[in-house]
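In response to reviewer comment 3 from the previous cycle, which asked for concrete evidence that the modeling workflow produces usable outputs, we include below a single protein chain processed end to end. The sequence was submitted unchanged, and the resulting structure tokens are shown without manual editing.
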Amino acid sequence: MSERARSATPPHIRDALQLGRVGIMSIQAARLPAALARDAVRAIDALGYGALWLPEGGFHKEIFANSTLLLASTERLRIVTAIANVWAREPSAMLAGANTIAEAFPGRFGLSLGIGHVEEVEGPRGRRYEKPIDFMRRYVEAMDASPYDAAAPAMPAPRLIAAFGPRMLALAREISSGTNPSFVPVAHTTYAREVLGPEPLLCPGLPLVLTDDRRVALEVGRGYTSAYLRWDNYRANLRRLGWSDADMDNGGSDALVQAIVAWGEPSRIRERAEQHFAAGADHVCLRPLPQGAPQFPIEAFEVLAPAMLE
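The workflow returned the following structure tokens.
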């Protein structure tokens, strides 16, 4: 890690949640039956990854219950929500959930809040979607003002806000300890660090395909990018970085797919992670993309470990 990235981590974050350089994510951690999920996280714990970033996103397992299950199944693994959806619970419930886990598992739980998408809010949840920046600010203020009449954690769970646009990044800088942007190229890490300044934690996600076959990498990667490019906010973010609408059509141009999705041997995946670190990242979250039936990618994490955790 560069000295710049190393010095960018605020002391209270280093003390409260020692993520290490590299974490992991798999959406299957939010879908597996409990017994299989326990086995999966125990294997991850033994490999030595710094953190598991646990999705909730749309409609997966309830994230506080799932975090507790997985933390109780491991000895040292940190878990960070990625994300806890602010439309899924009231601010007081979000605070109580985070405090409950942080008190039970000191230094092993982080809370990243996310705003989600209008289509996930106004239809299935029956809520009225509001302006994201204003709503997130009010939500966090309400969290901070909520009473909590129970055993308090020695240190509250560090709070991040999932962000990639300039206004949400600025808000994350103001009212949280950092951010964990998804679906971003290295150029965004440079941009985000400039907006955040030197102190907030910056933890970009890194989707990847473990293959030397460029055709396979593009096919699998485009399946991933297609899912994100249907959302206007992700497309707007790429436009800010200089990508054209043509680059975003039909699941993404080859250049765009390869800018977001790393592929190749573990050494090449590490090279991409190092580019994020050089651009100002403090921590990179690896997300292997499935080549076949979706399953928890323990084999991919085992193959990546020697290159990523040395």
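The chain has one domain: 3-308. We consider this sufficient to address the reviewer's concern, and the full set will be provided in the supplementary archive.
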